[in-house]
Amino acid sequence: MSVWIYPGSFDPITLGHENIIARGAKLCDTLYVAVLENHSKHPTFTTDEKIELIKECTSHMPNVVVECFSGLLADYAKQKDADAILRGIRNTGDYEYEHNMSQLNKKLNSNIETVFVCAEPELACISSSSVKEIAKLGGDFSWMVNKNIYNKLKDYINRRK
Amino acid sequence: MSVWIYPGSFDPITLGHENIIARGAKLCDTLYVAVLENHSKHPTFTTDEKIELIKECTSHMPNVVVECFSGLLADYAKQKDADAILRGIRNTGDYEYEHNMSQLNKKLNSNIETVFVCAEPELACISSSSVKEIAKLGGDFSWMVNKNIYNKLKDYINRRK
Amino acid sequence: MSVWIYPGSFDPITLGHENIIARGAKLCDTLYVAVLENHSKHPTFTTDEKIELIKECTSHMPNVVVECFSGLLADYAKQKDADAILRGIRNTGDYEYEHNMSQLNKKLNSNIETVFVCAEPELACISSSSVKEIAKLGGDFSWMVNKNIYNKLKDYINRRK
Amino acid sequence: MSVWIYPGSFDPITLGHENIIARGAKLCDTLYVAVLENHSKHPTFTTDEKIELIKECTSHMPNVVVECFSGLLADYAKQKDADAILRGIRNTGDYEYEHNMSQLNKKLNSNIETVFVCAEPELACISSSSVKEIAKLGGDFSWMVNKNIYNKLKDYINRRK
Amino acid sequence: MSVWIYPGSFDPITLGHENIIARGAKLCDTLYVAVLENHSKHPTFTTDEKIELIKECTSHMPNVVVECFSGLLADYAKQKDADAILRGIRNTGDYEYEHNMSQLNKKLNSNIETVFVCAEPELACISSSSVKEIAKLGGDFSWMVNKNIYNKLKDYINRRK
Amino acid sequence: MSVWIYPGSFDPITLGHENIIARGAKLCDTLYVAVLENHSKHPTFTTDEKIELIKECTSHMPNVVVECFSGLLADYAKQKDADAILRGIRNTGDYEYEHNMSQLNKKLNSNIETVFVCAEPELACISSSSVKEIAKLGGDFSWMVNKNIYNKLKDYINRRK
Fold first, then answer.
1. Which is the catalytic residue, given B9, B17, B50, B80?
2. DSSP for D40-108?
3. Chains meeting F at 3+ CB pairs closer than 8 A?
4. What value does the mean pLDDT of chain C take?
């Protein structure tokens, strides 16, 4: 029974995230999509909204569980008895950041492995912040997010403008 | 039943390779360590020698199978019905190369995923060529390879000087 | 009739920017230097000041037009019927950022191309923020900006300290 | 009248090259696709074959001229009175190499500019060598090259195996 | 008599910093560890606390002098008649940043050289911010800082939570 | 008495090398410029020619000693009782390579430090191979090498064409 964790801010979930989740879910028995509650940052979406949107995008994947966590990822991984943390990499900047985090996490929990997959080329330019920026400026972001959540997302973002 | 492949030249196997194998073997049910037979390159070790050395280093890992393959990795992966190719990354140069290969392999076999893990920091400077270079120049390479194969390796390299 | 756009914050214009403008202006019929008005950021200079300074630096280039824009660059490009966005690259960090932006802009406006030129080596360390930082700390920034605007700039920055 | 040069080995031309040519041809009046004859390297295709294949792929672009050149690119550019050299960039490795070449070329011919465009994400994994490697190993490379030259190319490569 | 400067925020000093100081101190006659007082940033520790902690970690190195400075590093270097600025590099991101700073500093003070050493691999994931983040979330950071200051540090951080 | 080593192939010495030597010589008491004799590579210049050219370029620097060495750099450093190896870095590719070498050298000789300085921006595009390539193709390389050795170099290269 292999357990993997895909942690993130998901502010909001994009097609880039969704692609990593779908690919990761095939490689393990249970994949926890873990929304980080960071009380010092000011996300655009509430944790409840984030979880609701992720659940809507991943409802067809039976081995995906959506949760939130706070504190150290290494501790959350211990609690879930996880084998690996999953991360998507879009470019060398991402690689350097994730490399560093994986080294820190292993120091904090020597049982946890971090595995990387590369973003699909055509999705590599998508990030939560680019979704929000383009939405705020009235651009078309329908190609960046799941079509089931597009309207809800549009609504959320407009309300926060 | 998840099947992963760890392909390479292993000319010869180093502690860096061994570390990736040990970590990968924990994340899947069967890990094929697949030695590429490339008839146009001129390796220092024969395929038989390479396999013998890898077997000696991995004999304590029951779910590791050592094999050789020729032709396209994507075809070998299909034949093994593999879920993923495993690769270790030491630096951004490695990352760029592996990123590219993973994109090519997915184009050739859309079922195959490539997963990456980062080299352990203290092993990141080890490569098969640095082992051979240092051995050839009479330097100490005992910290770069498995102690069980160190003497055999020394012998092989001396014979080929 | 080829139309290019060189967008930026220009807070303030540096010799690095000026060099890119001069080189870009030779490669197209009209080059719009487009100052982004971003109401959520807090620039050091007002849009009017920025435009005034750029005009002073580019007055000898007849095919350079200085304007401001707000909203999406892709929309501004459509409005100008532009063929290309021009960007200067100083290092691999810049490259990664610009690569990503060019992919986003093409998704938002499939007619727009992004072309890059490399910063001149001796200008590559200049940025608007380094100009302001050095000026604020009383260092010599005369080698970083156009001599015609140096005093005006010094004055502006001192007033804002 | 702007004249650009797109130099390369084109051993053979790929869909990646073709994409850069098509995008470059829209940004200038005449685009020279310039095949480098390098007598010290041993290309898979002859210069005549390379030119024939490029012509077949670019026949629908009226402002594209296919030629070969030897010697320094900076001299060839002078001879053509070219405004710019065009290069495609696939990743940061490419960027570093091209950055360096552009600096050298400007030193050799101060009138020549080098402009870069980024490879389309889904074409970024294609190179002449990966085409040849995959072809040699019997893999499907039809997605990597122009369909009009695919059979000719297959034939050429088989003959050279 | 060679004089080097190791500047930084040291908010707080980590084992990574300490390692660079120890290595740098062997390469020059006097090494100034220079704490930047930046009044626009809001550090976690006061300058006095930072200096106290650094002194405690470096008391066994007779040629290390701990000081604070404000203003331009290039001016401070002039004042100390320093030969070189010392910087540690952990990854390519650090390299790019430091490369740029060294170019700026040479422009501001042509007598000052910047020399780099690479972080020890096992310390490369340590930064002042990761120390504070992990401490704040209750994780074990004893492996990231000097054991003599660990308790004091823990105390400081807890008080600031 | 600090002793540093600047190792390389110097095939031939360029203004880039010369700049690093001049800067390094100011930071130590004795700088050994150490020409690697690598019997498996086929350099353009003989070791004697290389040494002669370097001596001509560095004769005005009294604390520079030109020598050749073979075998491991770590062993040569031990023999000279050197404190540091000096290396110049031109770009992130160089940085990654040198980072790796410094880690290997420390493993082979724990007393040896590697220090880096960044290439001067306007010299960063110069390498021994670009000198030879441009010279071979009849381009002007007078800006790439010391004017005292330019004619000698031209002569050597022509003879080897």
1. B17
2. TS--SS-HHHHHHHHHHHHTT-TTEEEEEE-S-HHHHHHHTT-SEEEEEE-SHHHHHHHHHHHHHHHHH
3. B, C, D, E
4. 95
- For chain D, the domains span 3-160
The CA distance from C83 to the nearest CA of chain F, in Å, is: 31
CA angle F119, F120, F122 (to 5 degrees): 120
Compute the distance between CA of residue C85 and CA of residue C6 in angstroms, rounded to an integer.
Answer: 6
Paired strand residues for F64? F31
Determine how many CB atoms are found less than 10 A away from the CB of residue D127: 18
E42 is catalytic: no
Full DSSP string of C67-95: EEE-S-HHHHHHHHT-SEEEEEE-SHHHH
The predicted structure's pLDDT at residue A161: 62
Residue of D nearest to F137 (CA): D71
Distance from CA of B91 to the nearest CA of E (A): 9
* Catalytic residue chosen out of the listed positions C17, C50, C87, C132: C17
| D53-62 per-position pLDDT tens digit | 999 999 999 9
Residue matched to tokens 């030779």: C26
What are φ and ψ of residue F33, in 5° steps? -90, 110
Interface confidence, given as ipTM, is: 0.94
Compare all CA atoms of chain E with the CA of C124 and give the residue at the minimum distance: E100
B78-83's contacts with Cβ under 8 Å and 24+ in sequence apart are B78/B109, B78/B111, B78/B112, B80/B3, B80/B5, B80/B32, B81/B3, B82/B3, B82/B4, B82/B5, B82/B32, B82/B112, B83/A26, B83/A27, B83/B2, B83/B3, B83/B4, B83/B28, B83/B112, B83/B113
Distance from CA of C122 to the nearest CA of F (A): 6
Query: Which chain A residues contact residue D19 at CB under 8 A?
Result: none
- Window 6-45 of D: residues touching F by CB (8 A cutoff) are none
**Neighboring chain E residues of C138 at a CB cutoff of 8 Å:** 71-72
Considering only the beta carbons, identify the residue of F95, F102, F121 that sits closest to E92.
F95
Mutant choice from B39, B100, B102, B105 vs D, greatest count of D C-beta within 10 A = B100
**What does each of the 161 residues of chain F score in pLDDT, given as a tens digit?**
899 999 999 999 999 999 999 999 999 999 999 999 987 778 999 999 999 999 999 999 999 999 999 999 999 999 999 999 999 999 999 999 999 999 999 999 999 999 999 999 999 999 999 999 999 999 999 999 999 899 988 888 777 76
Cα D100 to its chain centre, rounded Å, is 18
CATH class of the structural domain C3-160: alpha beta
Of D9, D50, D87, D128, the active-site residue reads D128
- Contact yes or no for F115 and E115 at CB 8 A: yes
The predicted structure's pLDDT at residue B159: 79
Q: Which sign, positive or negative, has the C-alpha torsion D55, D58, D59, D65?
A: negative
Q: Cβ distance A3 to A79 under 8 Å?
A: no
Which helix (H) or strand (E) covers residue B76, if one does? Answer: helix B73-79
pLDDT tops 70 at residue C161:
no
- Dihedrals φ, ψ of D149, to 5°? -110, -5
Cβ-proximal residues to E28 (8 Å cutoff; 6+ apart), any chain: E2, E3, E4, E63, E83, E84, F2
Q: Is A41 a catalytic residue?
A: yes
**pLDDT tens-digit map of E97-149:** 999 999 999 999 999 999 999 999 999 999 999 999 999 999 999 999 999 89
